[in-house]
């Protein structure tokens, strides 16, 4: 079942959501945008009045997709990220350079490759095909230049699809993969799902939401009301899709009891948001209004934008008595803005915590375990040895790790040579330093040797884990 709950921007939607969740009970997934998960968890704790979320889980759609694929054992795919796509398109554009006429001058530039990469991403998000666009441009009244541009890009896009097909999965095809996994999931069947925080949704996201509606107990989506009729179009589209899929559908207005008390500045913004028909008297009043709780900054580029934010944060902390934990910075382009914010804030001496998904192997404990196992699996390859030593969890000081790595590179220490005492370089290093390196090697390899024996022995998983923990 798909349930829509509609309200304007002055509605406290999160209070409404957790009131409803409390009334209905059961296991609940709350799906929010990737960058909003941390704040969404804070809001969930606030409105549920608890210190821990038991039956409620905050999750992004991409993280849910990974869990669905993992449940069915299909999560291991060769991903082509945006950098890989950029590199592949750069090569394909060069190969098709003779096909360009309109784009001849710009085809070799980075901006053109970026534009084409974004075009392909948006193209797939909207579930379009080249044939569909070509069909739309076949009419006599179609724009001739637009048709010519599309024809020039067609060769590169088709070549891209051929290169990727059967070898790699890009992020848009990955979405299609986990959409296909929704109907087979046992985990989803027992869940109530709430989706909010999305001002717009793509056709792929819509398809995922409809598949969830067909598989889960219920899916509830928060719809933002506007004066432009966009919400009515979305409601009509979802109603029609649900009818096609025989999914029950309902739409309910969020009551006025959830309207929030906000500053006069925010009230004026919300009254005018998506509203182009304000009375002239109210427009005149807005023109004469001076907001003392809103500052708008025009920045030339993202770096100046981050610097303006950093300087303002220092003003809040130094002059107005704010604490760092009272301040949040929201950026809508994670990939582009996160590196800029980290760099600029570091220059200003501002600590910053990024609420973004990280690979689990980025953490030192997991990296230590993985590199240790790879060291055993890959014939004591030195790169894994130094990776685990550099985590700081092996009991070896950073200076000693650096000296050991320099020695190994100089004298080509590899494979089983780690199991024998070093023989070369004592004169160059000095007896004390040379003995120190041998002592480190013995200590590390004695522990690795014990673990290797445990791995080779006929032991249960629990026994191996216990030996592993003792390391």
Summarize the structure.
With 471 residues, the protein is α/β, with parallel strands linked by helices. It has helices at residues 13-24, 37-48, 61-71, 82-95, 110-125, 130-136, 144-164, 171-182, 186-189, 203-215, 230-245, 264-272, 280-287, 302-320, 334-347, 364-377, 382-389, 398-411, 426-429, 431-456, 461-470; strands at residues 2-7, 28-31, 56-59, 79-80, 169-170, 192-195, 218-224, 249-253.
The multimeric state of the shown protein is single chain
Distance between the termini: 52 Å
Order of helices and strands: EHEHEHEHHHHEHHEHEHEHHHHHHHHHH
Low-confidence stretches: none
Structural class: alpha/beta
Strand residue content: 5-15%
Can you count the helices? 21
Walk me through the structure:
There is one protein chain. This protein has 21 helices and eight strands. It has 471 residues and is an alpha/beta fold. It is globular.
Core attributes:
six-stranded parallel sheet, 471 residues, two-stranded parallel sheet, 8 strands, 21 helices, alpha/beta
SSE inventory with pairings:
Blueprint: E1 2-7, H1 13-24, E2 28-31, H2 37-48, E3 56-59, H3 61-71, E4 79-80, H4 82-95, H5 110-125, H6 130-136, H7 144-164, E5 169-170, H8 171-182, H9 186-189, E6 192-195, H10 203-215, E7 218-224, H11 230-245, E8 249-253, H12 264-272, H13 280-287, H14 302-320, H15 334-347, H16 364-377, H17 382-389, H18 398-411, H19 426-429, H20 431-456, H21 461-470
Parallel strand pairs: 1-7, 1-8, 2-3, 2-6, 4-5, 6-7
Helix pairs in contact: 1-2, 3-8, 4-5, 8-10, 14-15, 16-17, 20-21
